[in-house]
Amino acid sequence: MRLFSNLRSARWNALVGCALVVALVTGVGIGIALTTAKVEAQAARTFSGGQGMMLNYVKNGSRADFELVMNRLGEALQAGNSERQQQASGWKVYRAQEAGQNNSTLYVWFIDPVVSGADYTVSQILNDAFPAEVQDLYTRFSNSFAGGQSMINLDLIGDF
């Protein structure tokens, strides 16, 4: 009888051990996937010209989310360090009156002057200011796009 009790105990320990290994492997896999997604989402965006422009094509049904994130971005820039405040002073956000590609809404950022070497990555700016909210804000931001973004570096060649 004692032999069967020891066998049951050994089987139970083996089953629990296997379950722990499966849980560990699953957790590591999920952790790697989430970490990779966050790193890709936060690739640095810097402008090399004296001025910059970013074209943002946003789904019409996501305008409210995009504008909410833009409001929080403005708050983050104003509340940030002196470099962030310099970025805020030259960063303007416009919404086109005309429909964009595939009936999207075009939002244009004009940045004049560009802060040389500064990171204009929205997710990074939001993360610095609002770490507890950044995932929700970034999800709203990234899900709002109909056609992505186009980054344009500008150099002034005439001032009439």
Indicate the topology.
Blueprint: H1 2-41, E1 51-58, H2 63-79, H3 82-90, E2 91-99, E3 105-111, H4 122-129, H5 134-143, E4 145-154
Antiparallel strand pairs: 1-3, 1-4, 2-3
Helix pairs in contact: 2-3, 2-4, 2-5, 4-5
Radius of gyration: 24 Å
Spatial separation of the terminal alpha carbons: 99 Å
**Helices and strands: which structural class?**
alpha+beta
Low-confidence parts, pLDDT < 50 over ≥5 residues? Answer: 14-40
Task: Say how many strands there are.
Answer: 4
Q: What is the third-level CATH name, the topology of the largest domain? A: Alpha-Beta Plaits
What is the total number of structural domains? Answer: 2
Question: In short, what is this structure?
Answer:
This protein is an alpha+beta fold and 160 residues long.
Structure description:
- By secondary structure, this protein is of the alpha+beta class.
- Helix content is 52%, strand content 21%.
- Strands 2-3-1-4 form a four-stranded antiparallel beta sheet.
- It is globular.
Structural key phrases:
160 residues, alpha+beta, Alpha-Beta Plaits, four-stranded antiparallel β-sheet, 5 helices, 52% helix, globular
